[in-house]
Amino acid sequence: MRLAAGIGWQIRLDLAACTIYDPRHADTDGARGMETTLHRQLKEVYCHDPDQHEVVLDGYRIDAIVDDRLIEIQQAGLGALRTKIATLLKSHDVIVVKPLVGRKVLIKRARKGGRVQSTRTSPKRETFFDLFDELVNFVTVFPHQRLSLHVLLTEQEEHRVVTGKRRRRDKGYRVEDRRLTGITDRLELRTCRDLQALLPADLPQPFSTADIAKHAGVPRWLAQKAAYCLRMTSTARLVGKDGNTLLYEWQQPTKRAA
């Protein structure tokens, strides 16, 4: 479902009030370790009280706590959070915030704190459908009655420093920081019906991964991941084959999907 302006508390989208990235002091804050500016900004967006950031609870470090709800912000893969979230859900309400990159500006410097060499916009743009690429490693946790998954479509800056190396597995630069410059859209997923709403309304019944790819306008490999998530969360069920092609139907048909 679309997130309203407030979800139990007011989410502040005033990025001007958040921490600003300064390349002259990147990676110098030992207390914060390798935390990116993006991660820090999202904590401030969700929780206005800095005393409720980085709280240790039940043996885990929690990004933020608001109204007894635990906030976990995950830039990396959702699978890395799987055990932690499954444990916390036994006794706490949890919101997992997953930022996707709708637009990214790449800013390159020759050295840390140096002048900008080049600025360009990345051709890669994620949509809400790209969540399925991450969700395949989180279906043993989601859905859960105490879990909300907030998916943010963001605009970001990625600050790079040239390494001068062109070896195998070396791109010739390192990412120094990522910064949030905007949130253009956001979704809250709690149930299988919310997951179903990510799929096109005009999918035939039954449908295949080829149908998902065609109607959603996504690559077949991503459609296959979507089908796996739908099946593992009991959002859709396997109903047969058309030759070697697996066919699925919604577990709980709705007027939208009819």
Protein architecture, described:
The protein has helices spanning 37-46, 82-88, 131-135, 192-196, 209-216, 220-232, and strands at 53-57, 60-66, 69-73, 93-109, 116-121, 147-162, 173-189, 236-242, 245-250. With 258 residues, the protein is of the alpha+beta class. The chain has two domains: 15-190, no CATH class; 199-250, Orthogonal Bundle (Arc Repressor Mutant, subunit A), CATH 1.10.10. A hairpin with a 2-residue loop joins strand 1 (53-57) and strand 2. Helix 5 packs across helix 6. The two termini are 19 Å apart.
Question: How are the SSEs ordered, and which strands pair?
Answer:
Blueprint: H1 37-46, E1 53-57, E2 60-66, E3 69-73, H2 82-88, E4 93-109, E5 116-121, H3 131-135, E6 147-162, E7 173-189, H4 192-196, H5 209-216, H6 220-232, E8 236-242, E9 245-250
Parallel strand pairs: 3-4, 4-6
Antiparallel strand pairs: 1-2, 2-3, 4-5, 6-7, 8-9
Helix pairs in contact: 5-6
Question: What keyword list fits this structure?
Answer:
Arc Repressor Mutant, subunit A; 2 domains; 9 strands; 258 residues; single chain; seven-stranded mixed β-sheet; two-stranded antiparallel ribbon; alpha+beta
